[in-house]
């Protein structure tokens, strides 16, 4: 509880996943929550983005989030930034980061910003470079990835100093790093399941750090059949150019 109540969380995205994660973090009682999102509330958002109401249409998401989260827990220090994270974004210092983004391109920018952010420089300096000699320095803090599309979702934790998104997605991440969100429909309950799993990862981090978390594993959620599977990732094989995944 001491670690949880002292935690400074960085939330990338305040949409379906991000708004659900933010509500749970506020109710848990984190010390500080910084939220980045450039968008405004739109009608299609209302089916799954729990922070927003019809009266909020057209308002910046971060402004509404700040208001609602303050009502939920006035003790949480809130920092909201109405901007898109790019590789040169000067991110503030934080203890843990939540990826609640909706495209490979946005995730590539988040990873680059975390690796080079001035607010994280001291922490990053103590972490060795990635195992690839030509790769950038590893992440300076745990990054809890969440993704949802249609009936399906996934969660994984990227550990400090590790291979980042490339270690999870393999070459597909680099190939799709310029892609933007496609606006595909997402079932509301899937978003809630993924966000809950992301916050569960945060609680596990508070208890014991990354060894207990979904590092080198992906939790795959099927919202239609209620099936949950854990896919174990093996180290990237440069000879055959692909990661191997075993279902556990």
Describe this structure in words.
With 248 residues, the protein is an alpha/beta fold. It has a single domain (2-216), classed as Rossmann fold (3-Layer(aba) Sandwich). Helices cover 32% and strands 20% of the residues. It has eight helices and nine strands. It has helices at 2-6, 16-28, 61-72, 104-116, 121-125, 164-169, 171-175, 188-208, and strands at 8-12, 32-36, 77-81, 96-99, 143-149, 152-158, 217-222, 227-233, 245-247. A nine-stranded mixed beta sheet has the order 3-2-1-4-5-6-7-8-9. It is globular. The two termini are 31 Å apart. Mean pLDDT is 87; it is low at 121-136 and 238-244.
Index terms:
Rossmann fold, single chain, 20% strand, 248 residues, nine-stranded mixed β-sheet
Explain briefly what this protein structure is.
With 248 residues, this protein is α/β, with parallel strands linked by helices.
* CATH level 4 superfamily: NAD(P)-binding Rossmann-like Domain
- The termini sit apart by 31 Å
Could you say which structural class the secondary elements and strand pairing correspond to? alpha/beta
Count of helix runs: 8
CATH class reads: Alpha Beta
Residue-averaged pLDDT, rounded? 87
CATH topology: Rossmann fold
Strand content: 15-25%
């Amino acid at each position: 509880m001491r670690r949880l109540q002292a935690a400074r969380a960085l939330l990338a995205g305040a949409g379906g996943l991000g708004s659900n994660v933010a509500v749970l973090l506020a109710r848990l009682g984190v010390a500080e929550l910084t939220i980045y999102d450039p968008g405004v509330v739109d009608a299609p958002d209302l089916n799954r983005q729990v922070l927003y109401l019809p009266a909020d249409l057209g308002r910046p998401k971060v402004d509404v989030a700040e208001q609602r989260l303050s009502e939920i827990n006035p003790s949480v220090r809130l920092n909201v930034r109405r901007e898109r994270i790019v590789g040169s974004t000067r991110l503030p210092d934080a203890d843990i980061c939540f990826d609640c983004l909706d495209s490979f391109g946005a995730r590539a920018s988040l990873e680059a910003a975390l690796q080079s952010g001035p607010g994280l420089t001291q922490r990053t300096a103590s972490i060795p470079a990635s195992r690839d000699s030509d790769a950038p320095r590893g992440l300076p803090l745990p990054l809890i990835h969440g993704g949802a599309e249609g009936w399906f979702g996934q969660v994984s934790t990227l550990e400090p100093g590790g291979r980042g998104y490339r270690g999870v997605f393999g070459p597909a991440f680099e190939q799709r790093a310029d892609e933007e969100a496609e606006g595909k429909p997402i079932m509301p309950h899937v978003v809630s399941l993924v966000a809950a799993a992301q916050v569960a990862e945060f609680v596990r981090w508070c208890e014991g750090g990354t060894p207990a978390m979904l590092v080198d594993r992906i939790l795959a959620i099927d919202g239609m059949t209620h099936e949950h599977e854990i896919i174990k990732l093996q180290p990237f094989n440069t000879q055959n150019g692909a990661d191997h995944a075993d279902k556990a």
